Design the sequence.
């Protein structure tokens, strides 16, 4: 038998975070031999199903233990019954699969237990930097312990792999595979559908939402002078979920020192109460600094591309090390000059002064200077953007990344004792040797 093994991907959320969008690419590619199990229903489930990926979403209160990345021991005690029920439900679904693949921290812990009960191999995909800025001590310990039983580990960057090892993580099969991107999607030469977005500067900023999808000339009272004004006012964009460590506040503070700039913050608080509080504080800070008319909160957008096309500069200011940072690569592919914080994977993605700019995390002054430099020398900014696009195209094209990723999974599968893939190779080798 030479059938490829069947895989069950396990992910803790139904929301659309970067880890989920990354997994979606692989699941769609392997949809003939995989299913995805989510601890919660949501837009991720709908995305997978609309792409014909068999998907199971666990419904109901037992769906997810209320343990967050920085939770302590007490949270674990109270979450234990939910954890057990989750293990039972995942085990039931996992029985019919050859290989399990955990894509998020809670999924790693649950999958490790399920895999040991069912005696099945599992892989871990690390999308997070396991350090004190992202996880409590007990969570770091649990994750590293659970990952020890995995047959292989995929890290989304060298920074993530290093942090895992520094936290005590060990694996003889650890591979760095970056996220992949559908490069040509970002290369469209279509006219900017969001030209109208710029009009928002001269109007209440909510105009931006109303303008979605409408060509610039169709905007009601768009006088020529208004168009010119709006076209001439630089727009900076920040993309990604709203959470304290992504540092949206740094951009807002920088904006207070850059009077001739407008900004759009695309994304929403997706996961925790802390995220929702941070968003509230962010809005309040914007108002307190008198910037409400210059910052638009666009919320979560199913497609950020039109917004990416509309902005002049993309800023990414995580204050804790970024494990990968899909939005950085997406901005580069869209041909925009990017400024990112010098910590974690951005150091691998961007060559400072060549394919983008890197600034000290949390340093508002440095961010202000970097934005000013790009605005003062537009042709240099364009050079950085062009070089950034070339570099991202070469390194992160989905086909290349998928080949590496699936190659690693296949290699692990073949190395497993009693693997059907191994048997098929043995059979092929024997028939060659005997000249059959
Ligand atoms: N994203 C989106 N809509 C939004 C904001 C972000 O679709 O409103 C996408 C974005 O295009 C990117 C992903 O969400 O692919 C965020 O991934 P990233 O790795 O940058 O950050 P994460 O939130 O996973 O830490
Ligand atoms: C996580 C990380 C992000 C990364 C994404 C995909 O959500 O926070 O940095 O880009 O996973 O690997």
Sequence:
């Amino acid at each position: 038998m030479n059938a490829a093994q069947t895989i069950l991907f396990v992910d803790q959320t139904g929301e659309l975070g970067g880890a989920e969008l990354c997994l979606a690419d692989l699941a769609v590619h392997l949809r003939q031999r995989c299913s995805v199990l989510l601890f919660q229903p949501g837009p991720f489930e709908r995305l997978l199903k609309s792409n014909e990926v068999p998907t199971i979403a666990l419904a109901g209160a037992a769906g997810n233990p209320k343990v967050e990345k920085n939770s302590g021991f007490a949270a674990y005690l109270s979450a234990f019954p939910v954890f057990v029920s989750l293990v039972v439900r995942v085990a039931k679904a996992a029985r019919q699969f050859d290989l399990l693949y955990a894509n998020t921290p809670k999924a790693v812990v649950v999958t490790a237990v399920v895999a040991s009960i069912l005696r099945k191999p599992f892989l871990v995909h690390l999308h997070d930097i396991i350090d004190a800025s992202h996880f409590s001590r007990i969570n770091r310990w649990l994750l590293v312990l659970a990952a020890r039983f995995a047959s292989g580990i995929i890290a989304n960057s060298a920074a993530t792999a290093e942090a895992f090892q520094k936290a005590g993580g060990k694996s003889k099969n650890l591979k760095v595979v970056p996220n992949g991107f559908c490069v040509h999607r970002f290369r469209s030469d279509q006219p900017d559908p969001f030209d109208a977005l710029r009009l928002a500067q001269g109007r209440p900023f909510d105009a931006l939402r109303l303008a979605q999808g409408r060509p610039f000339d169709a905007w009601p009272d768009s006088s020529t002078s208004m168009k010119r004004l709006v076209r001439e006012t630089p727009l900076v964009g920040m993309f990604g979920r709203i959470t304290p460590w992504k540092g949206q506040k740094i951009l807002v503070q920088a904006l207070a020192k850059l009077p001739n700039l407008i900004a759009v913050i695309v994304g929403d608080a997706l996961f925790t109460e802390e995220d929702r509080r941070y968003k509230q504080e962010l809005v309040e800070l914007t108002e307190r600094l008198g910037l409400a008319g210059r910052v638009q909160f666009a919320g979560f957008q199913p497609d950020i591309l039109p917004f990416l096309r509309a902005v002049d500069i993309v800023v990414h200011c995580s204050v804790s090390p970024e494990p990968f940072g899909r939005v950085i690569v997406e901005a580069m592919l869209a041909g925009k000059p990017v400024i990112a914080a010098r910590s974690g994977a951005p150091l691998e993605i961007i060559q400072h002064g060549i394919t983008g700019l890197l600034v000290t995390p949390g340093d508002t002054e440095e961010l202000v200077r970097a934005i000013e430099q790009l605005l003062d020398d537009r042709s240099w900014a364009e050079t950085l953007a062009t070089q950034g696009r070339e570099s991202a195209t070469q390194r992160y094209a989905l086909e290349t990344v998928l080949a590496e990723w699936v190659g690693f999974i296949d290699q692990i599968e073949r190395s497993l004792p009693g693997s059907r893939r191994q048997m098929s190779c043995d059979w092929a080798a024997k028939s060659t040797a005997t000249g059959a």
Notes: Confidence is low (pLDDT under 50) at residues 193-223, 225-229, 421-436. The CA atoms of residues 31 and 57 lie 16 Å apart. Residues 73-94 form the longest helix (22 residues). The chain is about 45% helix and 15% strand.
